[in-house]
Amino acid sequence: MGKIKEIQQFLQKENIDAAFITTPDNVFYVSGFHSNPHERLLGVMVFKDAEPFIICPFMEVPDVKAAGWSFEAAGHEDTEDAWDVVMDAVRKRSALPTSIAIEKSHLTVERLERMGQLFTGTEFFRLDEQLNNMRNIKSEDELVNLRKAAELADYAIEVGCREIAEGKTELEVLMAIEFEMKKKGAEKMSFDTMVLSGLKTASPHGTPGDRKIQQGDFILFDLGVVYNGYCSDMTRTVAFGEPTAEMREIYETVREAEQAAVDLVRPGVRAMDIDKAARDVIDAAGYGDYFTHRIGHGLGISVHEFPSMTGTNELVIEEGMVFTIEPGIYHPEITGVRIEDDVVVTADGVEVLTKFPKELLIIQP
Amino acid sequence: MGKIKEIQQFLQKENIDAAFITTPDNVFYVSGFHSNPHERLLGVMVFKDAEPFIICPFMEVPDVKAAGWSFEAAGHEDTEDAWDVVMDAVRKRSALPTSIAIEKSHLTVERLERMGQLFTGTEFFRLDEQLNNMRNIKSEDELVNLRKAAELADYAIEVGCREIAEGKTELEVLMAIEFEMKKKGAEKMSFDTMVLSGLKTASPHGTPGDRKIQQGDFILFDLGVVYNGYCSDMTRTVAFGEPTAEMREIYETVREAEQAAVDLVRPGVRAMDIDKAARDVIDAAGYGDYFTHRIGHGLGISVHEFPSMTGTNELVIEEGMVFTIEPGIYHPEITGVRIEDDVVVTADGVEVLTKFPKELLIIQP
After folding, report:
1. Residue pLDDT, tens place only, A86-108
2. Which residues of chain A have pLDDT under 50?
3. Alpha-carbon dihedral angle through residues B222, B227, B229, B231, given to the nearest 10 degrees
4. Closest CA of chain A from B95, distance in Å
5. Would the CB atoms of B38 and A304 count as touching at under 8 Å?
6. Which segments within chain A are labelled E, that is strand?
């Protein structure tokens, strides 16, 4: 529960009475309990000077305890007003807080209006940056899970390559990967696994389907695995049979761009510099118009989290940050190629978590 | 685009200048475009007296068009402020709205604060009830998709039953089901498929794993399929080999409770009456303490939507509503059993969408 203490220190420093954490991933971060509450109320309330509690659906109380939460778990039944349960738990601990830090990028207007009625006269402050800053820098415990999630993703790509065969559909390859992952003990995939072949690779957000793999195709795998609540997210593009010269050129451009970005990662460079390192390579090769998204995004409990690695983000990279590097070229008439690694910023450079080779792999039919 | 017209009529009636729709499922409902924007801005702005537009990530503009959206799709790049794009689109159409209806149960405090700065002096109203009321009553087009989603779920249960065998793990059965669903053209499962066996059935939110199926087990399937954006959600519990007398008693109690609730469904009864019909049967059999959740929830584009079928909801049921009926008994020492159907309220009764038999099915080892 070191995270709770860190939030209490923040409250003391800012002289705010309480914090209410409601993003499911942040609830997990501070409590160890991971759940999608749908429309039900789930949150952790931390006090400057009193014990925290978690408010959760009644039937999840045992799961909260099993997840290691050692403070009060206040369960609310579907038939009662969850806010009554919150107020009871608050009153047991302290006078009504006169200032509460909330996650303004997550808490809904409706819930804030309700809190405004219940905590009359209370001022509300932002908690977002505090939580983002904490989550931005991964602890060694978190890195252990991220390394394992990346290792599983590497293996998933290996399985995918093994499954590729003439006439197999994208979905067949995809299901074989997911089955193998579940057998390996992966909780779940971080997002819908993508297996795209032929010209479908040229859609950055394509949907795998019944298309049959043919000789001469590039096959793009974009996938990730959740391990102990932490996500990987990686992409590899491989060839089935001989690719054309144009396909090779696009592949090598993306590979060079990706490597240029990875090589730049170290404390002190800015997010935008890393984006630019890759974009310059792709621009120089004449494919600039076909690289239509940012270089990457932060990765951890969420598959998309801070920092956002865009061409305009001046954020200075620090040791312990984890993000993806994933340039792509999407040429609707030739092919799409994307290569994506997960990287950790180390004291003096970079640790690449995803290790599946990036030289063009040509699978022989 | 009849939905857009309906929202315009609402704006005219309430004399509100514009509506901003941001829940991804509601964006789909009014635009036909389904997407999870993660932290990026996605929304549909509807005006009392001007053409609507959708604001979306730039790279999704082609998908928006392909989904049938015939109005402007304003794309924002990751490198620009999405709100600049919103304001440009607004200014092209009208003077700044002085009143905007928003989804207070979805829009974040941060976004409302931003809108408050951009639309100076604008008043914000609730749009939630209008959208809920629209979505609460399913159109015939929507029912076509819901029927198909339920049919696929029925088939998924059939596949699951076929796959059950001594020593197979829960995950093996689960993956076989999901593979078959993808082959059948299901977009995706509505939620993480649940296959639980033995005493794991006694956890309403259990996680499938490596447990091997054994003779004498109950096996609980809870699953759903998305078809054309619409969800099914059903549960069946089956036996592998002979169950004990106590297991049978629990099964028959749940079956009777479920049927009592289904039989009560018609326009004019209240949600709480339907809950009570099932709960009374379970209470009378002495298992009341083991039925720990509401009788069901609305179903449509979201797998959990309105109405919430709790024991305290006085909502009067109307023709066209669709919800689940899913009583369960979770006895930690004997077994868990849940039976769940998807039902539509008809003019004078009920149409049950999920048709897999509810008599206790005993699969012979």
Report:
1. 999 999 998 899 999 999 999 99
2. none
3. -20
4. 25
5. yes
6. 18-21, 43-47, 53-57, 72-76, 99-102, 123-126, 188-189, 194-197, 217-223, 225-227, 230-231, 234-240, 296-298, 305-309, 322-325, 328-331, 335-338, 341-345, 350-352, 362-363
- In this complex, do A110 and B113 lie within 8 Å of one another by their Cβ atoms? no
Q: Which residues of B touch A192 (CB under 8 A)?
A: 188
| Residue span of the structural domain in which B9 resides | 2-136
Pair B87, B223 in one domain: no
Write b or e for each residue in B318-333: b if 16 or more Cβ atoms lie within 10 A of its Cβ, otherwise e. eebbbbbbbbbbbbee
pLDDT in tens, B106-151: 999 999 999 999 999 999 999 999 999 999 999 999 999 999 999 9
Residues of B in contact with A113 (CB under 8 A): 104
Total residues found in chain B within this entry: 365
Q: Torsions phi, psi of B238, nearest 5? A: -125, 160
**Residues on chain B bordering chain A, Cβ-to-Cβ distance under 8 angstroms:** 38-39, 58-60, 63, 78-79, 102, 104-110, 112-113, 124, 128, 171, 174-175, 178-179, 182-183, 188, 192, 204-205, 207, 210, 292-294, 304, 308, 310-312
Of A60, A113, A205, Cβ closest to residue B60? A205
- The answer on A144 and A131 residing in a single domain is no
Is the Cα torsion angle B151, B157, B162, B163 positive or negative in sign? positive
Report the Cα A136 to chain-centroid distance in Å. Answer: 11
Do A188 and A232 belong to one domain?
A: yes
User: Both B213 and B257 in a single domain?
Assistant: yes
Same domain, A59 and A200: no
Contacts A–B by Cβ distance under 8 A = 92
A327 and A255, same structural domain? Answer: yes
A283 dihedral zone (left: phi>0; alpha: psi -120 to 50; beta): alpha
Task: Name the domain count of chain A.
Answer: 2
Q: Are residues B144 and B76 in the same domain?
A: no
